[in-house]
Amino acid sequence: MGLLSIGQTALAAAQLGLSTTANNISNASTPGYNREQILQTEGVGQNTGSGFIGSGTQVTTIQRIYNNFLTTQVNSAQSSYSSSNNNYTQISQINNMFANSKAGISPSLQSFFNSVQTAASDPSAASSRETVLTSAQTLASQFQSTSAQLNQLSDGVNSELTSTVQSINDYATQIASLNLSIQTAQAGNAGQAPNSLLDQRDQAVANLSKEVGVTVDSQGSDYNVFIGNGQPLVVGDNSYKLTTVASPTNVSQLEVGYVNGGTTTQLPENSLAGGSLGGLLQFRSQSLIPAQNAIGQMAIGLASTVNAQQELGQDQSGNAGVAMFTAGSPASTPSTNNTGTLQITTTIANVNALTTSNYSLQYDGTNYNLTRLSDNSRVYQGTTFPPPASIDGLNFATNGGTPSTGDNFLIQPTATGASGFGVAITNTSQIAMAAPIATNAPTANTGTGQISAGVVNSPPPPDPNLTQAVTITFNTPPTTFNVTGTLSGAPVTTNVPYVAGGNISYNGWTAQISGSPAVGDTFSVGPNTSGAGDSRNGLLISALQTSKTLDNGTTSIQGAYSQLVSSVGNQTAELLATSTAANTLLSNSTNAQQSVSGVNLDEEASNLLQYQQAYQAAAKVMSTASTLFTSLLNIMP
């Protein structure tokens, strides 16, 4: 090969090097761009008789500098960060809602019990009673408002799920289309890699990783992409779609479905980890639903305990107290996929034993399986339903229908407790500040015995019981006493052993006599006929603020709210730390990947100078070859 031809190959290689370097510089800030470099090989030498002489050079390919391992790490870190960050963004809204100590449920709860305590100091004052009713209405509004805000967050999750699923489908379609374009480009170009298309596909995968955790499998020139438990999202130039479907047991809640032909299969939430989608589903199941249930538990607990005490009292008109509050009831929803006729209802048997969990009831063809979803523990299994005893404070009943294998139900004991919380009374006179019984120790008694004010036992006894007067008379010696009166048809009781300070219970009330009664001393318990200034029941209502009436007697209403605020705050702080750590990992992974595949402008400037000099040298070789050829022509005759 002549000197001119060798120079031409050098010139062509230098020109490609300059073009490649220029392309790197122009795309230094292009997302997803991987730097490129030319690969040169030496031309085949030719035998001149005096030895082999080179034939120049050739550029075999323009190589994309790409590291699959580092790129996979970046995508994984991106997926983790998007998940934790989206979860943190969502839960911060709940945290901001609960953290304000001057607004919301906590101050309203405090205000209500303070108003009851104030009214108890002057139960006949109309202004005090009006304050109780007003503060009760304010408390109800706060429960309803908090429930509405949490429901808005739930609607927001549905909206974002729909948007995220659409983005996932768009990226899947784009990757499948790029797979086809890459196949076509390589087939029509002797297998040379279409670097720009490869970069676009890698960037599409990176964008998809922000939305959901993916697994990428390279097969030939194609990327096959999988999600969840191995469901294919892209196979070759075919893409599959996700969709949102209403939950079979909660139509107001959207779930993610996988479309395969004409069939849509709901994907388990725990299989869709990573990305914004995973963070969104995790927020709903681990933060939003528990918060809704916890607020509902408090509303039901407050309504139940206050109503129970209110019904043990006497209102301003001398009538037995009626319920002050209403609250939402448990919901038992059959799956829309059920084929049996069984229906179930759920009622609250014991507020104290209620949890903040939802439950799943499934029939497997032989057994009924009741699972507490908060810890995924089976709390009942049996061939018959309902269970023989209450479970977690719940009673169950059926319509007598027949279940089919695979039928299931979602049970939400407290989810609507706050939204259904309201004030049931409309008149201040209905506030039962007084007790319906009165005790008396005549001044004629000669001993030191004293009788307590007495309380009405729960549940409220029939009205006739409380209207019957009972007399307690001490015998000789005064170590026993007789009880006379109409005791719901019971005979007169005689010679009851006296225990100072011990409970004495009849007709649905309990009182205590202390001290040393004398022979013949009498004490009476009868209906309260002058209760206008009585506040005994009001004081018992106000004491409910600190009474441990929830979580099996371990916490009060106020304490339960404080625990919820603390729990949400701790989750928020934990997610912030997780998100920060994930962002650091993403940054480190990206830096490692860019150190290999990214464009270094200083390096490219050096390459530019190198190729420029090579170009000039090649041009000089060609110029020299041209001069020599001209000289040769000139010496010929």
Task: Explain the overall architecture.
This protein has 10 helices and 29 strands. α1 runs antiparallel to α10 and α2 (68-99) packs antiparallel against α9 (557-597). The two termini are 26 Å apart. The chain has helices at 3-26, 68-99, 105-121, 126-187, 195-211, 275-310, 463-466, 536-542, 557-597, 601-635, and strands at 36-42, 46-47, 52-53, 57-64, 215-219, 222-227, 231-235, 238-239, 241-247, 250-260, 263-266, 325-326, 331-334, 344-348, 359-363, 368-372, 377-382, 394-398, 408-412, 422-423, 437-440, 450-451, 455-456, 470-474, 480-485, 493-497, 503-506, 509-514, 522-527. Helix content is 43%, strand content 22%. It is elongated, with a radius of gyration of 41 Å. A hairpin with a 4-residue loop joins β2 (46-47) and β3 (52-53). The strands form 9 sheets. A 5-stranded antiparallel β-sheet has the order 13-19-15-16-17, with no helix packed on it. It has a 5-stranded antiparallel β-sheet with strand order 21-29-24-25-26, with no helix packed on it. It has a 4-stranded antiparallel β-sheet with strand order 5-6-7-8, covered by helices on one side. The model has no long low-confidence stretch (mean pLDDT 92). The chain folds into 4 domains: 3-64 and 602-635, no CATH class; 71-291 and 554-590, no CATH class; 292-305 and 315-423, no CATH class; 437-527, no CATH class. It has 637 residues and is α+β, with helices and mostly antiparallel strands.
